[in-house]
Amino acid sequence: MIEQNLFKGRHFQTNIILLCVRWYLRYALSYRDLEEIMLERGLHVDHTTIYRWVQSYAPELEKRCRPHLKACNDSWKVDETYIKVKKVWFYHYRAVDSEGNTLEFLLSPTRDTEAATRFFLKALRSTIDGTPHVHPVEEQKASPQLRLTPSHQFLE
User: Fold this and answer.
1) Are residues 148 and 80 in the same domain?
2) Residue 125: left (phi > 0), alpha (psi -120 to 50), or beta?
3) pTM of the predicted protein model
4) Which of 38, 58, 106, 155 lies in disulfide reach of 119, CB 3.0 to 4.6 Å?
5) Which UniProt keywords apply (predicted)?
6) In DSSP terms, which residues pair with 83 in a beta bridge?
C-alpha cells in the first residue's frame, strides 16, 4: 500500500496516527492514557479514534516491521511451569534462545500431548521463519513438514 492510500481521508496527520499506534503497541498505555497524552500536546483525539487506528494500522505495521526484526539463533531451550492467571491455573510453556529472548509461549489449561504438540509447532515454526510470531492453530495443523512423531509424546 502506498502511504497516501493508507492514510487517505484521515482527519489527523500521518505522524500523529503512527505515534499513537506505536506508543500503544510498544508501551503499556491504555487508549485513555494516549488520549490524555495527546491532550497535553494540544491535540483533541478521542480514545475510540485511537482504538480504530490501532485496529486498522497495527496489522500493516506488523507486516512491514517483521522482516527487520532480529532472527533467533539455533540454540534454544524449553521451559514449562504452572501459573495462576486471573485466579485460574494454567500451564505456561516457553521457548527461549541462548541469549534469553523469548521465541514463543503458550498458556494451556491442560498438560497433555495436544498442548505440547501445539506449543512445539509454534516454536518450530518461529525458528524456521527466523522471527517469532503467532500462527492460528488450523494453519499449524495444516503444515505437514512440522509433524511430531509419537516418540515426542512425553507429556501424558
Assistant:
1) yes
2) alpha
3) 0.46
4) 106
5) DNA recombination, DNA-binding, Transposition
6) 90
